[in-house]
Amino acid sequence: MDRKADxxxxxxxxxxxxxxxxxxxxxxxxxxxxxxxxTEEEVLKYCDENTERIDLGGQVVLPGLIDSHLHVNLVGLxxxxxxxxxxxxxxxxxxxxxAYEKTGPGQWIRGWGWxxxxxxxxxxxTKEELDAxxxxxxxxxxxxxxxxxxxxxxxxxxxxxxxxxxxxxxxEYLHNEDGxxxxxxxxxxxxxxxxxxxxxxxxxxxxxxxxxQEEFVKNGLTSVHSAGERPETLDLWGELYAKGDLKVxxxxxxxxxxxxxxxxxxxxxxxYFKRGLRIGEYDNRLTARCYKISGDGSLxxxxxxxxxxxxxxxxxxxxxxxxxxxxxxxLYEARRAGFQISYHAIGDAAxxxxxxxxxxxxxxxxxxxxxxxxxxxxxxxxxxxxRFAELGVIPTYQTVFxxxxxxxxxxRLGDRVNGAYIWRxxxxxxxxxxxxxxxxIESINPFQCMFCAVSRTDENGKPEGGxxxxxxxxxxxxxRSYTMWGAYSAFEENIKGSIERGKLADFVIVDRDIMTCxxxxxxxxxxxxxxxxxxxxxxx
Length: 540
Fold this sequence. Notes:
This protein is an alpha/beta fold. The protein has a seven-stranded parallel β-sheet. It has a six-stranded mixed β-sheet with strand order 3-2-7-22-23-24, with helices on one face. The longest helix has 17 residues, at 202-218. The mean pLDDT is 96.
């Protein structure tokens, strides 16, 4: 007779997110899999006197949550860099001043998360403001979107940049009217600063993954898609998995990091492709079968590539990072090597370039199950909306972006806003919508992200009634965006994403019913327990 279940959970409210969105009361686990799901009577058939029995006392259980777009090491490194999220400019300058006193000669002061749109004066900050608090130590503070950096004069000096340095393709050095450097650099113009900063070593990279894991499991994330990793980083994670220190499941997107020119991008990518795919390693905890590439910047920094000028900046529509032929050339090799592709596109021009390239590739190399992705898919021209479902391209969203972007989107886009953040439209056209946070760009809290998807407001209920509320998700769709749709976008829907017999026993127990609680309380949901592969990895 087959061995009975190791543990049985009864008297719960279990949102399975199966094909029928069924709600059950019990399930049992054997080894790292769900053995049975259903009523208590149905499930207890798989148990005996040796099965541990856990009474949930009516608590709510969800499938293990999947963030489909974040950056593992950057989430962890936030512990040792200045965390600038939600900070006013004066607070940031005070933080830099305090770091200046503690930082040794030649060491960089680094931080992440400032958003000028949250300041009373929302213009970009200047190098002179940083110079006043850090006159002789380099400072580099990355904007919350990741597509601009605020730097001081010492950093500019060490990066070898001056007012005569030409803008690189896909980047821009902001200048004052007199031609001097402003102190904010956009997208690929960040590369000289990235190269000037001493990179973190293997120890810091491994520790940052473990620090990130602490945040993941506390937030109920059992799987994450890390949007852009070097193979060497995956190797470092492999060492942690082999020792049993890393538990969370990572879907790694291989990427040429930094801001390379095309020759570097192409040649380094070929080396990555030769290493091949990594699928289901360390008991289905590490997979790397996706190739990530960026096509433009962000809306907040006005570096998203638009077909027409920004409505609030006539004469400026930014630019793409690659020509059509360059993009085709490298993505052709990715497909030839068997990689899924994940392309960062915010602006309507970037989305169109990607869709055009995908269509060309699929005509040449047909694949009925390619699951090509566009990360963000934020602003779409009306002519391109139907192309996602027609081509089978998956749009992955970060619904939490709306909490800040709504403040600038109408001004930046004008009427084009009708093709932006169109979650309801995309779902109704048959697209799965994997969701995520782009952490640490936004908080990795999945319940805040799901709340934004349903309410179309920020955490303070603004704007009242929701911003373009007709594009909201339902609560069931928001949960599916963090479970089955995330699993599908990684070819993993047969082993995760729902609580069903035979799937990996990844689940979370939470303190409220996110399907029935007052909507404004959804964002405040607290994780009580996180289980990965049947093992409790977090308990409040």
